[in-house]
Every structure is written in structure tokens, then in C-alpha cells.
Amino acid sequence: MPSYSYECTACGEQWSEILPIKDMNKPTELRCAQCLQYGTVQKKLTTPGFVSDSKSVLRRAGTEWQDVLKKVKKASGKGNTIHD
Q1: Comparing 24 with 76, which gets the higher pLDDT?
Q2: pLDDT given at position 83
Q3: What are phi and psi of 50, to 5 degrees?
């Protein structure tokens, strides 16, 4: 389930909740747990988190691919902008 972030416009309290998509606006209909005011909770716009495995693209590709890249770099001359 996705995580949604909320903020109270009255007191500035911020929190996140894991909710089904159909319930993402329910906290905005409730009062703030900190200052107890109604109509002050807003859903914040946030970017989704991103997780990947710890291996770099070059490590997953294997040593043969790294050898090809080294040959390309060597053949490109002294003025190349290829970095290791």
C-alpha cells in the first residue's frame, strides 16, 4: 500500500500514513491529532520512494561488458570525456 504525507495548516504537525488508495483523503476529513482543529489537515504532495539492489549497472553486466567499455575508452583518444 502507498504511504501518504499529511500536514495541519494550523499547527504545522506532519505525519505519514500507509493507506489504500481509496482511503487517501480520509485523514483530511478528520481533526488534527495535535491541535484538534477540523478542516486543517491537507495531503502533501510527495514523490514516491525508490529502492534498487546494491549492485551497480556495471557489476550486474559482468566483466565482459567492462572490457568492452575499456576498449571503447582507449579507442576514443586523449580528448575523450569517458570517466572510469
Answers
A1: 24
A2: 67
A3: -135, 130
Average pLDDT, the chain: 85
Q: What is the pTM of this model?
A: 0.56
Report the distance separating Cα 43 and Cα 63, nearest Å.
47
The whole-angstrom separation of Cα 43 and Cα 23 is: 12
Q: In what order do the strands lie in the sheet with 14-18?
A: 14-18, 3-8, 41-44
582507449: which residue's cell? 74
Those residues whose C-beta lies under 8 Å from the C-beta of residue 13, and which sit 6 or more positions away, are 7, 32, 33, 34, 35
Beta bridge partners of 17: 4
